[in-house]
Protein backbone atom coordinates (compact mmCIF):
# COMPACT_ATOMS: atom_id res chain seq x y z
CA UNK A 1 0.00 0.00 0.00
CA UNK A 2 1.60 3.21 -1.22
CA UNK A 3 0.65 6.77 -0.36
CA UNK A 4 1.56 9.97 -2.23
CA UNK A 5 5.20 10.96 -1.87
CA UNK A 6 5.47 13.66 0.84
CA UNK A 7 6.24 17.16 -0.39
CA UNK A 8 9.65 17.97 1.07
CA UNK A 9 9.01 21.68 0.58
CA UNK A 10 5.88 21.57 2.74
CA UNK A 11 7.62 19.56 5.46
CA UNK A 12 10.47 22.10 5.49
CA UNK A 13 7.87 24.82 6.21
CA UNK A 14 6.33 22.87 9.11
CA UNK A 15 7.32 25.35 11.82
CA UNK A 16 5.98 28.31 9.84
CA UNK A 17 2.74 26.51 9.01
CA UNK A 18 2.25 25.54 12.66
CA UNK A 19 2.82 29.13 13.79
CA UNK A 20 0.34 30.45 11.22
CA UNK A 21 -2.26 27.88 12.26
CA UNK A 22 -1.83 28.76 15.94
CA UNK A 23 -2.84 32.30 15.05
CA UNK A 24 -6.03 30.93 13.46
CA UNK A 25 -6.84 28.40 16.20
CA UNK A 26 -5.42 29.82 19.46
CA UNK A 27 -4.90 28.09 22.79
CA UNK A 28 -4.39 24.32 22.61
CA UNK A 29 -5.86 24.00 19.13
CA UNK A 30 -2.62 23.06 17.34
CA UNK A 31 -0.56 19.96 18.17
CA UNK A 32 3.06 19.68 17.03
CA UNK A 33 4.66 17.60 19.79
CA UNK A 34 5.78 14.26 18.36
CA UNK A 35 4.47 12.19 21.28
CA UNK A 36 1.09 13.92 21.18
CA UNK A 37 0.84 13.38 17.41
CA UNK A 38 1.06 9.61 17.95
CA UNK A 39 -2.53 9.58 19.14
CA UNK A 40 -3.57 10.50 15.59
CA UNK A 41 -1.27 8.20 13.60
CA UNK A 42 -4.01 5.76 12.54
CA UNK A 43 -7.73 5.12 12.67
CA UNK A 44 -9.58 1.82 13.17
CA UNK A 45 -7.48 0.22 10.42
CA UNK A 46 -4.50 0.18 12.72
CA UNK A 47 -2.25 -1.92 10.46
CA UNK A 48 -1.38 1.31 8.62
CA UNK A 49 0.24 4.10 10.63
CA UNK A 50 1.74 7.48 9.80
CA UNK A 51 2.21 10.38 12.25
CA UNK A 52 0.64 13.56 10.88
CA UNK A 53 2.72 16.65 10.20
CA UNK A 54 0.43 18.81 12.39
CA UNK A 55 -2.94 18.30 14.07
CA UNK A 56 -5.42 21.16 14.31
CA UNK A 57 -8.46 21.00 16.61
CA UNK A 58 -10.85 23.83 15.71
CA UNK A 59 -13.98 24.45 17.75
CA UNK A 60 -16.05 26.65 15.40
CA UNK A 61 -17.06 26.64 11.76
CA UNK A 62 -15.27 29.96 11.35
CA UNK A 63 -12.02 28.40 12.54
CA UNK A 64 -12.46 25.49 10.11
CA UNK A 65 -13.05 27.99 7.33
CA UNK A 66 -9.91 29.95 8.20
CA UNK A 67 -7.77 26.81 8.37
CA UNK A 68 -8.98 25.49 5.02
CA UNK A 69 -8.60 28.88 3.35
CA UNK A 70 -5.05 29.19 4.66
CA UNK A 71 -4.12 25.65 3.57
CA UNK A 72 -5.67 26.25 0.16
CA UNK A 73 -3.62 29.38 -0.37
CA UNK A 74 -0.45 27.74 1.00
CA UNK A 75 -0.89 24.48 -0.92
CA UNK A 76 -1.07 22.36 2.24
CA UNK A 77 -3.05 19.10 2.27
CA UNK A 78 -5.84 18.43 4.77
CA UNK A 79 -6.95 15.09 6.24
CA UNK A 80 -10.32 15.44 8.04
CA UNK A 81 -10.77 13.21 11.09
CA UNK A 82 -13.82 12.44 13.21
CA UNK A 83 -13.66 9.93 16.06
CA UNK A 84 -11.00 7.84 14.33
CA UNK A 85 -13.15 4.68 14.25
CA UNK A 86 -12.98 4.26 10.45
CA UNK A 87 -12.13 0.70 9.42
CA UNK A 88 -10.93 1.59 5.92
CA UNK A 89 -8.08 3.98 6.71
CA UNK A 90 -10.11 7.01 5.67
CA UNK A 91 -8.46 9.19 8.32
CA UNK A 92 -4.93 7.86 7.80
CA UNK A 93 -2.64 10.91 8.14
CA UNK A 94 -0.04 12.06 5.64
CA UNK A 95 3.50 13.14 6.53
CA UNK A 96 3.02 16.47 4.71
CA UNK A 97 -0.60 17.15 5.67
CA UNK A 98 -2.57 18.80 8.45
CA UNK A 99 -4.94 16.43 10.24
CA UNK A 100 -8.10 18.39 11.04
CA UNK A 101 -9.73 16.83 14.10
CA UNK A 102 -13.39 17.63 14.78
CA UNK A 103 -13.63 16.23 18.30
CA UNK A 104 -14.50 19.64 19.78
CA UNK A 105 -17.64 19.84 17.64
CA UNK A 106 -19.55 17.81 20.22
CA UNK A 107 -22.80 19.69 20.88
CA UNK A 108 -26.39 19.03 19.86
CA UNK A 109 -27.60 22.39 18.55
CA UNK A 110 -31.32 21.80 18.15
CA UNK A 111 -33.93 19.13 18.87
CA UNK A 112 -37.09 19.70 16.86
CA UNK A 113 -39.72 17.13 17.81
CA UNK A 114 -42.42 18.76 15.67
CA UNK A 115 -40.32 18.27 12.54
CA UNK A 116 -38.77 15.08 13.93
CA UNK A 117 -35.17 16.10 13.41
CA UNK A 118 -31.98 16.90 15.31
CA UNK A 119 -29.25 19.36 14.37
CA UNK A 120 -25.88 18.25 15.72
CA UNK A 121 -22.23 19.08 15.36
CA UNK A 122 -20.20 16.36 13.63
CA UNK A 123 -18.36 15.23 16.76
CA UNK A 124 -21.57 14.13 18.53
CA UNK A 125 -21.59 10.34 18.85
CA UNK A 126 -24.16 8.29 17.00
CA UNK A 127 -25.60 6.95 20.26
CA UNK A 128 -25.56 10.47 21.73
CA UNK A 129 -28.38 11.50 19.39
CA UNK A 130 -30.65 8.66 20.50
CA UNK A 131 -29.76 9.32 24.14
CA UNK A 132 -30.77 12.97 23.75
CA UNK A 133 -34.24 12.18 22.38
CA UNK A 134 -35.25 8.83 23.88
CA UNK A 135 -36.88 10.52 26.88
CA UNK A 136 -39.57 11.78 24.49
CA UNK A 137 -39.95 8.41 22.80
CA UNK A 138 -37.71 9.02 19.77
CA UNK A 139 -34.49 7.51 18.44
CA UNK A 140 -32.02 7.74 15.55
CA UNK A 141 -32.25 4.58 13.43
CA UNK A 142 -28.77 3.92 11.92
CA UNK A 143 -26.83 2.15 14.66
CA UNK A 144 -23.30 0.95 13.81
CA UNK A 145 -21.75 -1.45 16.29
CA UNK A 146 -19.33 1.36 17.20
CA UNK A 147 -22.23 3.75 17.91
CA UNK A 148 -21.02 4.46 21.44
CA UNK A 149 -17.85 6.02 19.97
CA UNK A 150 -18.29 6.83 16.27
CA UNK A 151 -19.29 10.38 15.38
CA UNK A 152 -22.24 11.47 13.27
CA UNK A 153 -19.93 13.43 10.97
CA UNK A 154 -17.91 10.30 10.30
CA UNK A 155 -21.16 8.39 9.74
CA UNK A 156 -22.04 10.85 6.98
CA UNK A 157 -18.55 10.70 5.46
CA UNK A 158 -18.70 6.90 5.22
CA UNK A 159 -22.49 6.49 4.84
CA UNK A 160 -22.50 4.23 7.90
CA UNK A 161 -25.11 1.55 8.44
CA UNK A 162 -26.00 -0.69 11.37
CA UNK A 163 -28.18 -3.58 12.44
CA UNK A 164 -31.46 -1.65 12.00
CA UNK A 165 -30.71 -0.31 8.52
CA UNK A 166 -32.50 -3.11 6.69
CA UNK A 167 -35.87 -1.49 7.44
CA UNK A 168 -34.90 2.10 8.19
CA UNK A 169 -32.04 2.75 5.79
CA UNK A 170 -28.43 3.83 6.10
CA UNK A 171 -27.18 7.29 7.00
CA UNK A 172 -28.11 8.66 3.58
CA UNK A 173 -31.75 7.68 4.13
CA UNK A 174 -31.88 9.50 7.49
CA UNK A 175 -29.90 12.61 6.59
CA UNK A 176 -31.72 15.88 5.96
CA UNK A 177 -29.05 18.56 5.78
CA UNK A 178 -25.39 19.49 6.10
CA UNK A 179 -23.19 22.49 6.65
CA UNK A 180 -19.89 21.91 4.86
CA UNK A 181 -16.72 23.93 4.44
CA UNK A 182 -15.02 23.72 1.06
CA UNK A 183 -11.24 23.71 0.58
CA UNK A 184 -11.38 27.39 -0.32
CA UNK A 185 -12.89 28.19 3.08
CA UNK A 186 -16.35 28.82 1.65
CA UNK A 187 -19.23 27.54 3.80
CA UNK A 188 -22.18 25.93 2.05
CA UNK A 189 -25.47 24.48 3.25
CA UNK A 190 -27.08 21.47 1.64
CA UNK A 191 -30.63 20.41 2.48
CA UNK A 192 -32.23 21.30 5.81
CA UNK A 193 -35.34 20.45 7.78
CA UNK A 194 -37.47 20.55 4.64
CA UNK A 195 -38.18 17.74 2.21
CA UNK A 196 -35.92 17.14 -0.77
CA UNK A 197 -35.00 20.28 -2.69
CA UNK A 198 -34.88 20.57 -6.48
CA UNK A 199 -31.70 20.67 -8.49
CA UNK A 200 -28.67 18.44 -8.28
CA UNK A 201 -28.58 16.14 -5.25
CA UNK A 202 -25.43 17.59 -3.68
CA UNK A 203 -26.49 16.24 -0.29
CA UNK A 204 -26.33 12.76 -1.78
CA UNK A 205 -22.95 13.55 -3.33
CA UNK A 206 -21.51 14.67 0.02
CA UNK A 207 -22.82 11.58 1.83
CA UNK A 208 -20.18 8.87 1.61
CA UNK A 209 -17.61 11.24 0.07
CA UNK A 210 -14.98 10.23 2.68
CA UNK A 211 -13.61 13.71 3.31
CA UNK A 212 -12.61 14.27 -0.34
CA UNK A 213 -15.05 17.09 -1.08
CA UNK A 214 -15.28 19.20 2.06
CA UNK A 215 -15.32 19.24 5.86
CA UNK A 216 -18.69 18.69 7.54
CA UNK A 217 -19.39 21.09 10.43
CA UNK A 218 -23.11 20.53 11.06
CA UNK A 219 -25.53 17.66 10.46
CA UNK A 220 -29.33 17.54 10.43
CA UNK A 221 -30.80 14.05 10.81
CA UNK A 222 -34.24 12.53 10.92
CA UNK A 223 -35.42 10.97 14.20
CA UNK A 224 -38.18 8.38 14.48
CA UNK A 225 -40.81 7.48 17.03
CA UNK A 226 -39.85 4.38 18.98
CA UNK A 227 -42.06 1.49 17.83
CA UNK A 228 -44.94 0.37 20.01
CA UNK A 229 -43.54 -3.15 20.20
CA UNK A 230 -40.18 -4.69 19.32
CA UNK A 231 -39.31 -8.36 19.78
CA UNK A 232 -36.36 -10.42 18.60
CA UNK A 233 -36.25 -14.02 17.43
CA UNK A 234 -33.02 -15.96 18.12
CA UNK A 235 -32.59 -18.89 15.73
CA UNK A 236 -29.80 -21.49 15.67
CA UNK A 237 -29.11 -23.62 12.59
CA UNK A 238 -27.03 -26.73 11.92
CA UNK A 239 -25.24 -25.05 9.01
CA UNK A 240 -24.83 -21.67 7.31
CA UNK A 241 -26.80 -22.77 4.23
CA UNK A 242 -29.95 -23.29 6.32
CA UNK A 243 -29.55 -19.90 7.96
CA UNK A 244 -28.96 -18.20 4.60
CA UNK A 245 -32.01 -19.95 3.13
CA UNK A 246 -34.09 -18.63 6.03
CA UNK A 247 -32.87 -15.09 5.36
CA UNK A 248 -33.91 -15.40 1.72
CA UNK A 249 -37.28 -16.90 2.69
CA UNK A 250 -38.07 -14.07 5.14
CA UNK A 251 -37.36 -11.36 2.57
CA UNK A 252 -39.11 -13.26 -0.23
CA UNK A 253 -42.22 -13.50 1.96
CA UNK A 254 -42.41 -9.70 2.00
CA UNK A 255 -41.33 -9.42 5.64
CA UNK A 256 -38.93 -6.54 6.31
CA UNK A 257 -37.47 -6.98 9.79
CA UNK A 258 -36.03 -4.05 11.70
CA UNK A 259 -32.83 -6.10 11.81
CA UNK A 260 -31.73 -9.47 10.45
CA UNK A 261 -28.21 -10.46 11.53
CA UNK A 262 -26.15 -13.61 11.15
CA UNK A 263 -23.14 -15.01 13.05
CA UNK A 264 -21.17 -18.20 12.42
CA UNK A 265 -19.82 -20.65 15.01
CA UNK A 266 -16.53 -18.87 15.85
CA UNK A 267 -18.34 -15.54 16.29
CA UNK A 268 -21.12 -17.14 18.37
CA UNK A 269 -18.66 -18.68 20.82
CA UNK A 270 -16.57 -15.52 21.09
CA UNK A 271 -19.63 -13.35 21.74
CA UNK A 272 -21.09 -15.76 24.28
CA UNK A 273 -17.83 -15.97 26.22
CA UNK A 274 -17.66 -12.17 26.27
CA UNK A 275 -21.27 -11.10 26.90
CA UNK A 276 -23.02 -14.24 28.23
CA UNK A 277 -26.10 -13.64 26.09
CA UNK A 278 -27.20 -17.29 26.48
CA UNK A 279 -26.53 -18.08 22.82
CA UNK A 280 -26.78 -21.77 21.80
CA UNK A 281 -23.27 -23.20 21.41
CA UNK A 282 -24.17 -26.38 19.54
CA UNK A 283 -25.14 -24.60 16.29
CA UNK A 284 -23.12 -23.56 13.25
CA UNK A 285 -25.03 -20.36 12.47
CA UNK A 286 -27.18 -17.94 14.44
CA UNK A 287 -29.82 -15.54 13.13
CA UNK A 288 -31.24 -12.62 15.11
CA UNK A 289 -34.43 -11.27 13.56
CA UNK A 290 -36.08 -8.23 15.15
CA UNK A 291 -39.65 -7.29 14.26
CA UNK A 292 -41.25 -4.03 15.33
CA UNK A 293 -44.52 -2.15 14.98
CA UNK A 294 -48.01 -2.57 16.45
CA UNK A 295 -48.22 -5.52 18.84
CA UNK A 296 -50.69 -7.49 16.73
CA UNK A 297 -48.53 -7.11 13.63
CA UNK A 298 -45.37 -8.15 15.47
CA UNK A 299 -47.10 -11.22 16.90
CA UNK A 300 -48.32 -12.23 13.44
CA UNK A 301 -44.90 -11.72 11.83
CA UNK A 302 -43.12 -13.71 14.53
CA UNK A 303 -45.40 -16.67 13.77
CA UNK A 304 -44.54 -16.40 10.08
CA UNK A 305 -40.80 -16.16 10.76
CA UNK A 306 -40.97 -19.19 13.07
CA UNK A 307 -42.70 -21.18 10.31
CA UNK A 308 -40.11 -20.21 7.71
CA UNK A 309 -37.27 -21.10 10.08
CA UNK A 310 -38.77 -24.54 10.79
CA UNK A 311 -39.15 -25.15 7.07
CA UNK A 312 -35.40 -24.59 6.79
CA UNK A 313 -34.35 -26.89 9.62
CA UNK A 314 -33.95 -24.51 12.55
CA UNK A 315 -32.31 -26.27 15.49
CA UNK A 316 -33.13 -23.88 18.35
CA UNK A 317 -35.57 -20.96 18.45
CA UNK A 318 -36.34 -18.42 21.17
CA UNK A 319 -38.45 -15.27 21.13
CA UNK A 320 -37.62 -12.41 23.49
CA UNK A 321 -40.22 -11.99 26.21
CA UNK A 322 -39.04 -8.60 27.48
CA UNK A 323 -37.04 -5.57 26.35
CA UNK A 324 -34.24 -6.73 28.63
CA UNK A 325 -34.05 -10.11 26.91
CA UNK A 326 -34.20 -8.49 23.46
CA UNK A 327 -31.34 -6.16 24.45
CA UNK A 328 -29.35 -9.18 25.62
CA UNK A 329 -29.84 -10.91 22.25
CA UNK A 330 -28.40 -7.82 20.59
CA UNK A 331 -25.66 -7.30 23.16
CA UNK A 332 -23.75 -10.30 21.86
CA UNK A 333 -24.06 -9.15 18.25
CA UNK A 334 -23.10 -5.57 19.07
CA UNK A 335 -20.06 -6.76 21.00
CA UNK A 336 -18.96 -9.32 18.41
CA UNK A 337 -16.00 -7.28 17.17
CA UNK A 338 -14.40 -6.75 20.60
CA UNK A 339 -15.33 -10.33 21.51
CA UNK A 340 -13.36 -11.68 18.55
CA UNK A 341 -10.48 -9.47 19.66
CA UNK A 342 -10.22 -11.65 22.77
CA UNK A 343 -9.52 -14.82 20.77
CA UNK A 344 -6.92 -13.45 18.35
CA UNK A 345 -4.02 -11.01 18.73
CA UNK A 346 -5.22 -9.17 15.61
CA UNK A 347 -8.09 -9.29 13.15
CA UNK A 348 -8.88 -7.66 9.84
CA UNK A 349 -12.51 -6.59 9.40
CA UNK A 350 -13.81 -6.67 5.83
CA UNK A 351 -16.91 -4.97 4.42
CA UNK A 352 -18.26 -6.33 1.14
CA UNK A 353 -21.89 -6.46 0.05
CA UNK A 354 -23.51 -9.20 -2.02
CA UNK A 355 -26.95 -10.19 -3.32
CA UNK A 356 -28.72 -12.21 -0.62
CA UNK A 357 -29.07 -15.27 -2.86
CA UNK A 358 -25.27 -15.50 -3.08
CA UNK A 359 -24.79 -15.95 0.69
CA UNK A 360 -24.33 -19.76 0.67
CA UNK A 361 -21.89 -19.59 -2.25
CA UNK A 362 -19.83 -16.80 -0.73
CA UNK A 363 -19.67 -18.37 2.73
CA UNK A 364 -18.50 -21.67 1.20
CA UNK A 365 -15.87 -19.92 -0.92
CA UNK A 366 -14.62 -17.96 2.09
CA UNK A 367 -14.17 -21.20 4.04
CA UNK A 368 -12.09 -22.55 1.14
CA UNK A 369 -10.02 -19.35 1.12
CA UNK A 370 -9.42 -19.66 4.86
CA UNK A 371 -7.93 -23.12 4.28
CA UNK A 372 -5.85 -21.81 1.38
CA UNK A 373 -4.38 -18.93 3.41
CA UNK A 374 -4.08 -20.90 6.65
CA UNK A 375 -6.05 -18.31 8.60
CA UNK A 376 -9.27 -18.48 10.61
CA UNK A 377 -12.27 -16.31 9.81
CA UNK A 378 -15.28 -15.37 11.95
CA UNK A 379 -18.39 -14.09 10.18
CA UNK A 380 -20.67 -11.43 11.65
CA UNK A 381 -22.85 -9.57 9.19
CA UNK A 382 -26.03 -7.79 8.19
CA UNK A 383 -27.63 -10.80 6.51
CA UNK A 384 -30.83 -9.00 5.56
CA UNK A 385 -29.07 -6.61 3.19
CA UNK A 386 -26.11 -8.83 2.28
CA UNK A 387 -23.49 -6.64 3.97
CA UNK A 388 -20.71 -9.02 5.04
CA UNK A 389 -18.20 -8.38 7.82
CA UNK A 390 -15.76 -11.30 7.77
CA UNK A 391 -13.16 -10.99 10.54
CA UNK A 392 -9.87 -12.51 9.40
CA UNK A 393 -7.87 -13.60 12.45
CA UNK A 394 -4.09 -13.25 12.38
CA UNK A 395 -1.04 -12.40 14.47
CA UNK A 396 0.99 -9.45 13.20
CA UNK A 397 4.00 -10.75 15.14
CA UNK A 398 4.13 -13.87 12.97
CA UNK A 399 6.06 -13.24 9.74
CA UNK A 400 3.82 -12.80 6.67
CA UNK A 401 0.48 -13.28 8.53
CA UNK A 402 -0.54 -9.65 7.95
CA UNK A 403 0.30 -9.99 4.26
CA UNK A 404 -1.73 -13.22 4.06
CA UNK A 405 -4.65 -11.55 5.84
CA UNK A 406 -4.58 -8.66 3.37
CA UNK A 407 -4.46 -11.02 0.39
CA UNK A 408 -7.32 -13.06 1.89
CA UNK A 409 -9.36 -9.89 2.38
CA UNK A 410 -8.72 -8.72 -1.17
CA UNK A 411 -9.90 -12.07 -2.50
CA UNK A 412 -13.10 -11.80 -0.45
CA UNK A 413 -13.83 -8.38 -1.92
CA UNK A 414 -13.11 -9.59 -5.46
CA UNK A 415 -15.53 -12.45 -4.81
CA UNK A 416 -18.21 -9.99 -3.69
CA UNK A 417 -17.93 -8.13 -7.00
CA UNK A 418 -17.80 -11.42 -8.94
CA UNK A 419 -21.20 -12.53 -7.60
CA UNK A 420 -22.81 -9.16 -8.38
CA UNK A 421 -22.00 -7.21 -5.22
CA UNK A 422 -19.80 -4.26 -4.34
CA UNK A 423 -16.56 -3.56 -2.48
CA UNK A 424 -18.08 -1.78 0.50
CA UNK A 425 -21.41 -1.46 2.23
CA UNK A 426 -20.70 1.07 4.97
CA UNK A 427 -17.01 1.24 5.90
CA UNK A 428 -15.95 3.22 2.85
CA UNK A 429 -13.05 2.75 0.44
CA UNK A 430 -10.31 4.77 2.15
CA UNK A 431 -6.92 3.21 1.53
CA UNK A 432 -8.02 -0.34 2.31
CA UNK A 433 -10.05 -0.88 -0.88
CA UNK A 434 -8.49 1.89 -2.99
CA UNK A 435 -6.37 -0.40 -5.14
CA UNK A 436 -9.34 -2.70 -5.76
CA UNK A 437 -11.55 0.02 -7.22
CA UNK A 438 -10.61 -1.14 -10.73
CA UNK A 439 -12.30 -4.46 -9.92
CA UNK A 440 -15.67 -2.73 -9.81
CA UNK A 441 -15.18 0.41 -11.95
CA UNK A 442 -13.67 1.02 -15.38
CA UNK A 443 -11.05 3.71 -15.90
CA UNK A 444 -13.77 5.88 -17.45
CA UNK A 445 -15.97 5.41 -14.36
CA UNK A 446 -13.15 6.44 -12.04
CA UNK A 447 -12.20 9.45 -14.13
CA UNK A 448 -15.82 10.63 -14.07
CA UNK A 449 -15.82 10.37 -10.28
CA UNK A 450 -12.59 12.35 -10.14
CA UNK A 451 -14.12 15.09 -12.27
CA UNK A 452 -16.67 15.52 -9.51
CA UNK A 453 -13.89 15.80 -6.93
CA UNK A 454 -12.18 18.39 -9.12
CA UNK A 455 -15.34 20.54 -9.05
CA UNK A 456 -15.01 20.76 -5.25
CA UNK A 457 -11.24 20.48 -4.81
CA UNK A 458 -9.28 21.32 -7.98
CA UNK A 459 -6.00 21.44 -6.08
CA UNK A 460 -6.46 17.83 -4.84
CA UNK A 461 -5.66 18.95 -1.29
CA UNK A 462 -8.49 17.19 0.59
CA UNK A 463 -7.64 13.69 1.81
CA UNK A 464 -5.34 12.76 -1.11
CA UNK A 465 -4.29 9.16 -1.59
CA UNK A 466 -7.73 7.83 -0.61
CA UNK A 467 -10.42 6.15 -2.75
CA UNK A 468 -8.78 6.61 -6.20
CA UNK A 469 -6.02 4.14 -7.16
CA UNK A 470 -4.59 6.48 -9.81
CA UNK A 471 -4.11 10.21 -9.28
CA UNK A 472 -5.06 12.40 -12.24
CA UNK A 473 -4.46 16.11 -12.28
CA UNK A 474 -7.74 17.93 -12.79
CA UNK A 475 -6.49 19.71 -15.94
CA UNK A 476 -5.72 16.38 -17.53
CA UNK A 477 -8.98 14.60 -16.82
CA UNK A 478 -10.83 13.86 -20.00
CA UNK A 479 -7.65 13.76 -22.06
CA UNK A 480 -6.30 10.47 -20.70
CA UNK A 481 -6.02 7.90 -23.46
CA UNK A 482 -4.09 4.65 -23.54
CA UNK A 483 -2.17 4.10 -26.75
CA UNK A 484 -0.15 0.99 -27.42
CA UNK A 485 -0.66 -0.10 -23.84
CA UNK A 486 1.10 2.99 -22.49
CA UNK A 487 -0.35 5.66 -20.22
CA UNK A 488 0.42 9.31 -20.93
CA UNK A 489 1.88 11.57 -18.24
CA UNK A 490 4.17 8.91 -16.73
CA UNK A 491 5.31 11.40 -14.06
CA UNK A 492 1.90 11.35 -12.35
CA UNK A 493 2.03 9.40 -9.05
CA UNK A 494 0.12 6.10 -9.22
CA UNK A 495 -0.27 4.34 -5.90
From TrEMBL:
EC code(s) of this entry: 1.1.3.15
UniProt cofactor(s): FAD
InterPro entries: FAD-bd_oxidored_4_C, FAD-bd_PCMH, FAD-bd_PCMH-like_sf, FAD-bd_PCMH_sub2, FAD-linked_Oxase-like_C, FAD-linked_OxidoTrans_Type4, Oxid_FAD_bind_N, Vanillyl_alc_oxidase_C-sub2
EC class: oxidoreductase
Residue ranges occupied by any FAD-binding PCMH-type domain in the UniProt entry: 48-226
Entry keyword annotation includes Lipid metabolism: no
UniProt keyword terms in alphabetical order: FAD, Flavoprotein, Oxidoreductase
Keyword Oxidoreductase tagged: yes
One Pfam family cited in the UniProt record for this chain: FAD_binding_4
Coiled-coil segments: none
Gene Ontology MF: a single term: (S)-2-hydroxy-acid oxidase activity
PANTHER family: GLYCOLATE OXIDASE SUBUNIT GLCD
Protein's name in the database: Glycolate oxidase
Natural source organism: Roseospira goensis
